[in-house]
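Re: that backbone. Tokens:
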């Protein structure tokens, strides 16, 4: 298992229950793969530097997790397929 930091930008115009559902779904993928989430930090709604899909604001979430490197490709593919997730970034922490 390796430590990773995952930042997701979710559409800001979603209601709170939908946003929480997306956050829990991403966390569920990590848990179902045998990984562990050490911390979820909700940064909240922020202005983005440039528009993504004609949206200027996004809801930022930081996950600190331990994931098997073999699961990382499938995890990123799942994130790309999620319509509410505008952008994501996965960084390995040493």
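Recovered sequence:
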């Amino acid at each position: 298992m390796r430590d990773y930091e995952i930042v997701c930008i979710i559409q800001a115009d979603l209601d709170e229950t939908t946003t929480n559902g997306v956050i829990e779904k991403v966390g569920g993928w990590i848990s179902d793969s045998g990984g562990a989430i050490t911390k979820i930090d909700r940064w909240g709604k922020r202005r983005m530097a440039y528009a993504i899909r004609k949206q200027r604001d996004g809801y930022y979430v930081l996950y600190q997790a331990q994931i098997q490197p073999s699961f990382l490709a499938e995890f990123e593919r799942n994130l790309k397929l999620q319509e509410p997730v505008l952008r994501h970034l996965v960084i390995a922490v040493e």
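Strands lie at 2-11, 36-52, 55-67, 85-93. The CA atoms of residues 22 and 84 lie 8 Å apart.
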